[in-house]
């Protein structure tokens, strides 16, 4: 090769070097904040987080490569939520995922600009978290567990399981507006079923134990457990107390039935985590939370624990067994 041709060749290659070097530069690392109300070593929350991370990976977001995730765990201590929210916002995340109404509310007080994607929220419109389901506005959107009328279904199913039922303790967190409204929904259908509902708060394990022990002192009682961070953290205690006092109980999530509870009826929480990851992906790619509609569950699950039913001396109606998505024997 002649010297002039060689120089021309090298010069042409060198012209492409900056572009090639630029293409090999590592991708910009995006930051996701995650606000979970539970504790990091809780198996249920670990399953939720695994589903979230798996879906992000399927969409191309790999932790340590092009995304970093900052976790904060609330441990059911709602008095610290505003502090936790402020810590997350101070990290300047591109988007924050929040599990539960209380976490979303705390984040909204901390920022009006950082996009928030939520799951496990009962009524974001009634709770003032979004303007509407179709057009949430503001900086928040996500996925709801159920609408208020759904709570009446818990009582209907419990009555179908236990025809002799005349009283129902409703375990909820009175600090969360949506759970207070859920109790109102149960109250609205209770007279037609001949059942008297009574609220039980869930501030701590001691309060739960005292309240359930007092309630169980009278006959023909049952238990309805509304989904919330505190009840999820105390699920083993609640299932144990229900068994001890022979209280047939309906729960909002499969985790309670796996812990020995009677039966559950609710949305698939793992599916919600995967769908939330999809919204996080869309926001990271440039879409706005205000333009993404709040979505309702696509699937509800009925899970029945026949071993617990037998221990309670109950026979599950064949119609409900046929409808069950899973039967634990």
What does this structure look like?
Helix content is 44%, strand content 19%. The chain is of the alpha/beta class. It has 2 domains: 30-145 and 269-297, 3-Layer(aba) Sandwich (Rossmann fold), CATH 3.40.50.2300; 150-267 and 301-328, Rossmann fold. The chain has a 7-stranded mixed sheet, with helices on both faces. The chain has a 5-stranded parallel sheet with strand order 2-1-3-4-5, sandwiched between helices. The protein is elongated. The model is unreliable at 1-24 (pLDDT under 50).
List keywords for this structure.
329 residues; alpha/beta; Rossmann fold; 5-stranded parallel β-sheet; 13 helices; 44% helix; disordered N terminus
SSE layout and pairing:
Elements: H1 3-23, E1 30-36, H2 43-58, E2 67-73, H3 81-90, E3 95-99, H4 101-110, E4 116-121, E5 140-144, H5 150-161, E6 167-172, H6 177-193, E7 196-201, H7 205-215, E8 221-225, H8 229-233, H9 235-244, E9 249-251, H10 254-258, E10 263-267, H11 269-284, E11 300-305, H12 306-311, H13 318-323, E12 326-328
Parallel strand pairs: 1-2, 1-3, 3-4, 4-5, 6-7, 6-8, 8-9, 9-10, 11-12
Antiparallel strand pairs: 10-11
Helix pairs in contact: 2-11, 3-4, 5-6, 7-9
Can you describe this structure in just a few lines?
The chain has helices at residues 3-23, 43-58, 81-90, 101-110, 150-161, 177-193, 205-215, 229-233, 235-244, 254-258, 269-284, 306-311, 318-323; strands spanning 30-36, 67-73, 95-99, 116-121, 140-144, 167-172, 196-201, 221-225, 249-251, 263-267, 300-305, 326-328. It has 329 residues and is α/β, with parallel strands linked by helices.
